Amino acid sequence: MGDKKKQASMFIRLVSAAGTGFFYVKRKNPRRIPTKLEFRKYDPRVNRHVLFTEAKMNVESESCSISLARSTSENLLEERILSTELEEQLKREEVL
Asked: d(Cα 47, Cα 38) in Å, to the nearest integer?
């Protein structure tokens, strides 16, 4: 068939210098920009703009974070359903 070419761009992780663990994901073309990226962006965990530096993104951690986000949203949905059911039950008990 055809020769497989190396991807021109790759995903990188911009990690907060504040040490909160918050990060942004960005796409970078290493042929065009060989230096490490640094941006001053907003970190909501410290509620201010801080320096974000480039770190490699592992494929495993990317899929793990996606599954974690899914499980977190599913847990939030279940908690909302349970809380509404509890509220309804408490209202019924107050009426009686």
From this structure: 19
For residue 94, give its domain range: 58-96
Give the pLDDT confidence of 29-38 residue by residue, as tens digits.
Answer: 888 888 998 9
The number of CA neighbours under 13 Å toward the Cβ of 76 is: 6
Q: Sheet holding 48-56: strands in order across?
A: 23-28, 10-16, 48-56, 38-43
Q: Dihedrals φ, ψ of 37, to 5°?
A: -85, 145
3 state SS of 26: strand
The answer to whether residues 47 and 63 belong to one domain is no
Question: Does pTM surpass 0.70?
Answer: no
